[in-house]
Amino acid sequence: MQKQKKDNKKDNKNNKLMEELVVEIKSVVKVTQGGRQRRFSAVVVVGDRKGTVGIGIGKAGEVPDAIKKAIQAANKNLIKITLIDNRTIAHEAIGKSGAARVLIKPAKAGSGLIAGGAVRAVLELAGLRDISSKSLGARTKLNMATATINALKSIKTVEEVARLRGKEESEILG
Questions:
Q1: Is pLDDT at 10 greater than 70 in this prediction?
Q2: Number of domains the chain contains
Q3: Strand 100-106 to strand 113-114: parallel, antiparallel, or no bridges (unpaired)?
């Protein structure tokens, strides 16, 4: 019994380090024979501003419950990205989700975070400070956030590429 309590304390400690940002709350309706059932859907992004970020979706009859479920789902779907100089990414990348596509590019120091909506929320909580983005295709908030996560997942540093190919970094850079 005590072991479970320790695990819960670790979870709570970990959750306190994470920041949450609600991207979208919407009302969804399921039409049944007995009438319409209204529920709420929430999209939440969590991150520690140090290279860890995740996105989650939650549905419930009440808004706070939906947000709570979304936070739990986001904490299960965390990804770790490598930050260059603790401010930007290694190279440009395109992420896709549904009809939404997001292009993210590294930017010079001091240029700031150039992004909007759900893309900005994901990049901000990931800890990226100098980055430029462009949204291509559909602009659904959930798909834009997921496309941004997919773009961040696809980024590889020079060290990772060298390790995968079994070569030296100098061989990769030319």
A1: no
A2: 2
A3: unpaired
**Confidence band of 16 (pLDDT split at 50, 70, 90):** low
Gap between the Cα atoms of 112 and 22, Å rounded: 22
Predicted TM-score of the model (pTM) = 0.86
Joined tokens for residue 59: 């549905």
Condensed to tens digits (0 to 9), the pLDDT of residues 139-173 reads 999 999 999 999 999 999 888 888 998 888 888 88
Identify the DSSP state of 111: S
CB 89 within 8 A of CB 59: no
Count the Cβ atoms, other than its own, within 10 Å of residue 84: 15
Q: Distance (Å, rounded) from C-alpha 3 to C-alpha 10?
A: 11
CA–CA gap between residue 42 and residue 53 (Å, rounded): 17
User: Cα–Cα distance between 72 and 94 in angstroms, integer?
Assistant: 27
* 74 and 88 within one domain: no
User: How far is it, in rounded angstroms, from Cα 168 to Cα 63?
Assistant: 52
The last residue of one of the domains, among 18, 46, 79, is 79
